[in-house]
């Protein structure tokens, strides 16, 4: 098969089958990444103690920054890639791929090496103290020097998915997640090494995931070919604009965590923060599942948009929205039924912590009815070039509205207001999407009527 045959498959395969072909690998891959995060934390905490775990947490913004950068350029470039393939412009698509990979590798190296010069100041600025400083420094040093491996793996995984190979992208995620668990188990429990070795183990796992992805370049169906290209500021700007909502989404996770920790410390002290930590582990799994839905939608919408296949675009987004809504309702009902046993999995907590976690989770999960739809629609608007709306969705739900509610509601209704902040923000964003979508649909109908007249 050649690139044209892959294109033909996307053109002729039913929208439902195409959606499932991308959805299942994306969801499975993201879920394994979530499991990897939880297991990794459990191993470090049990073997090296609370200070080591806290040190990794303090240095984790470096990891988060590299993830955000790989999503920013990866999603921005991959969206343009799929649009070009849909428009039957493979040469342009390959130029976008080469451009994006070059940018992500160069940017990560420059940022990492520059930050190394200020690493002592940086680790202190992130909140390290005498107990956590050695651990945070050891973890950060490895990430700054070798983080480009992880960003390349993540970005190329996005391009491979967009090039019609979601299963291989999933296999790379599985390889990364499982090998990271095995390698860090050996490092911690067999070799009895420290946090720096754990960070290096993560880089080795990312290298193995990258190795899996390279097999795509030997396939006859591969459209990801490196080309010489002239540097164009306009192309860089377009990639950055389209990918910006994905960057904001990753940054918003940190805003969500910090704002809730501060508010709960103020309202309920250590017990409240502990309860949020439990809830945040559960939320991370759900969040990555919704991200998996977005990852499934993006290649399809981008391709159909580039090919001018409006009917397939509408069918895809309709299926994705109903899938997200169904998942949200199931999660809401499930959480109400099994909240206390789920909280109990994370430890034998005091009644105060358990009460906060159970009560908070039962309120918080109301957000899931809207959150999946908001993720899907953000990806939809990002994929068709409506960057302002995609940016608004991300900014509003993770920063503007959430921070406004979390600042106001606790003063009015106590700790319940903290748990209500995210559900209310998601509901308000959903309402704004409905209004915008109807407005756009009305404008499209009017334009079609005028053209017919």
Automatic annotation (TrEMBL):
It is found in: Cell membrane. InterPro entries: MATE_fam, MATE_MepA-like, MATE_MepA_subfamily, MdtK-like. The chain crosses the membrane at residues 20-39, 51-75, 96-118, 138-160, 172-191, 197-214, 235-258, 278-304, 316-335, 355-377, 389-409, 415-437. Keywords: Antibiotic resistance, Cell membrane, Membrane, Transmembrane, Transmembrane helix, Transport. It is a multi-pass membrane protein. Pfam families: MatE. Its main location: membrane. Belongs to the multi antimicrobial extrusion (MATE) (TC 2.A.66.1) family. MepA subfamily. This is Multidrug export protein MepA. It comes from Paenibacillus filicis.
